[in-house]
Structures are given as structure tokens and as C-alpha cells.
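BUG: 3D viewer hangs when loading the predicted structure for this chain

Environment: internal workstation, default settings.
Expected: structure renders.
Actual: progress bar stalls at 90%.

Input used:
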Amino acid sequence: MVMANSGSGAVHLGPVRTLVRYVDEQRAVVDTQVSIERVLPPIDVEADDDVALEVLLEINGEEGFHDEKQAVLTRSEPWATLRMEVVYPERWWPAGMGGQPLYQLTVHLLYNEELVESWSTTLGLTSVRRTDVTRDALLINGQQRDIKEVIPFDKAGESALLPVTGHTLLLVRDHYGAPMLYEAADRAGILMLQCVPIHPEGRPEMDMHEQVDRLAPHPSLAGWFVGHLGEISDELAESIRQLDPTHPVFRCVPGIG
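C-alpha cells produced before the viewer hung:
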């Protein structure tokens, strides 16, 4: 692995945000925003005013699907959004509605055709929407899924076994769910509603951008819960919609009202 250097220091891969924009039986649209960042260079670094780095995005399915796309990033244009279409996607479903196939999405950062850094995540192709018919259900890939049980999940309970029914909604509250929790829910076909923790002084957690980057690719994420705290919830909901327009924002928990 090599180190790429710009006039402002060593360059590495910045935050990656992957959003499933659209899913149906015939195609899925996935947007991945990639960026590069700079760190302070060693004293003996030879600087390049505007070093160009190549980003290679790959997506691989369990049944052999493969596609890739490339982009060039520079100090003056340090980010790009790469759109990929998956034909006849293997859609992710809650347990009891279908399977839980996952895709592997990998970002490679290259300099002079040599690898600088790689980042990888699993991705589920699914669509979660509200239903106008009842508050006790969600639309998963256009099909209604009744929510028969809501289980609050605190940080202390993350080591507990996940429920085995796809009719259960886990309400992750007072903290952001750990990676292992969401990965287990992805595999088990369990839907999760992520509460956005509120600072004791009434401010959202400062790492909201990072958490959206981390959680948005998980098919088990049914949406974000902001509660009903007046202006605080209003501002929080607007911020989340800008960061993640692909998941619904809830004031009331489905299955509870």
C-alpha cells in the first residue's frame, strides 16, 4: 500500500455514504458519495499541488452479480457521487416475507494505479415506506408488513438474542446501535427503528453525519425516530432528511401510535 501526497499533506479516503435510492423487481439504484481528506505530511514529503486519485467502486452480489464504476478526485474536487444500477436485484425482506440477501460494496482509493486505501460494507436492497392505511404497519418493497410487537432496545440489552419474528420492530433508544447489532438484524430479517439521542441540553449528538454514513446501508434500518419535542424534533427531522432522504423519519413509533 502506498501513500499519496498533496500540497497540504498525505491524502486518504474520507467519509463514505451509501444510499439505496430506488428498488423494485427489475432494478435498484444505489448512490455512493466518496471523498478524500488530507492529513499533515511528514517533513520530507515531496508535495504535488493537485494530486489526482482514482476511486474504484465495486458491488458484488451473492449470486454472482458484479459491477464497478470509477471517478477521479483531486484537492480542488475532493468528492464525487457514483450511481450504480443493479438489474433484477436480490431484494432484502423481513423474516417471513422473503430472503435476506446482502451485497458487498467496496471502495478502493488508487494513486498511480497502486492501492492507497480500501473501505467495504455490506448493503441490502430494500425499500421501507410508511403506509397511509394504518400506523401499525410499514410498506416493505411495496408490500404491507404489520408490526405486532415493539421491543425497546437499550445499550445494556445489546447482548440479548434478537427476536425471531419479522413482525417485531426493535426500537433502539438512548444510543446508536452497535455494528454487530445491525449486522445480526440484517442476517435475521429484523426491522430496527433508530432513535436519535438528544443531548441533555437539547442538542442532537454531534456525530449524526457519521451515524447516517454507518447505518444507512443496513436493510434492517426501518427509519429514524425523533420523538415529539417541538422545535428540537422539527430541526432534527429536517437535518436527517437532508442527510438520508431514503428512510422515513418518525414522530410516533409504528405499532404503538
